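User: Show me a protein chain along with its predicted structure.
Assistant: Here is one chain, sequence first, then structure tokens.
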Amino acid sequence: MSDKTSKIQDPGVGVQYEHETKRIINPDGSFNVKRIGTANFVRDAYHWLITINWLPFIVVIGSIIITTNVVYAFLYMACGVEHITGVFQTNSLWDEFVQAFFFSVQTFTTVGYGAMSPQSHAISLIASLEAFNGLLLSAFSTGILYGRFSRPISKIIFSKNALLTKFKNTDKDCLQFRVINKRENTLLNLEASVYVSIQQKQVDANGNEEFRRQFYDISLERSNIMFMPLSWTIVHMIDEKSPLYNLTLQDLIHQHGEVLIVLKGFDETFGQDTYTYHSYFATDFVEGRRFVRNFHVDEAGDIILNVGDVHLTDKLPSKKKKK
């Protein structure tokens, strides 16, 4: 057991506020800070496109490509679609737009079926600009796709609740939570750093209320493991050295207690370290329960792990009175 529980200075989230604050880290792993004045989409488009979800990304890139082809289709129509070989002359603007749009798509993607080709200098100039534009946009989209696929993002699942429970079959109090890798690959050299934040109300010399956070780097029964093919239950013993000692669950809720977790591990797929952040607010704590083992051994001797059971708990067994 690593005995390192100690009070620490501000880890980077602030210690003094004029009002009560919400949790430090949201359930999705993001910090609960609303940033004003950050780089906008135009100035930081690459980072924005790298980090947004897949559905908005597909919509944005698809919209840019379609809009670009629509703009060029109108330019071709403005110059006269009769200057494009293979376009059928009709009295319908819609038919002309459709043919100009498909010519634009062929030029943009440099497909060049041969059925349509420019016949005037104006159309040729616009087609040349579009082909160059298409190459740039294709290269940009390819780079964004590569960046999204090559980002080392871990898929660590944390148990829904942290447990205030007994350590194994003893009478010792402890704090527990469980983590598991959602992917098939194995994470190596996992290290866990766990901190406790407790918020207290104080009154300054002028009679004004202020709220201060105190941070503690807490000891763990085991702070690192070599491999994580199964789940890992991370345990902090609540003894006299623990900041949670003699605090009830209601005390922790009243003081906005929060457990901050940083997991670092080597991902063999990406070939580099990955980091995962998570927190348990006091309202996420549960008393009187224990984690249920989420794996078993079948008749063939294989270990069967149920990833979805990482949250599974049951009640602590009642103590039998000695006669």
